[in-house]
Amino acid sequence: MIVQIESISSIGESIYITFLNEFGKANARAFFGSTLSPRVGDVYSAELNIDDSLEWGRDICVADQEHFSIEANAYYTSLNGIFEAYDDDAYTVLRMGDYVIPFTSNGQPLDIGSFVKVDTKAIEIYTIDY
Question: What's the total number of domains in the chain?
Fold first, then answer.
């Protein structure tokens, strides 16, 4: 996923960014590796991860609209995407366009292929080199 940094802050050793991409705008804890110094305006190839175990029916539900989006408010980040996979060990995959976002989930999942809305407080972003 291509992201552009809009703002950067830090809490202790952790870096947090607000980023823009083709789906919207959100906040995430960022991991840039030891050689990168992120700057506002920089563009990166990155992967998103949800570092949280989410509950079907509470954190994951049927999306109101069938389009890909990401947005944040003061409490959580919402992602709209396609529920793509679920394993017996609760490994779950959300697809947004050409990108996948993994997380774990609990409860009874919806049908694979459903458009879902995922609400989480724990988005992480990792830069990648291809």
Answer: 1
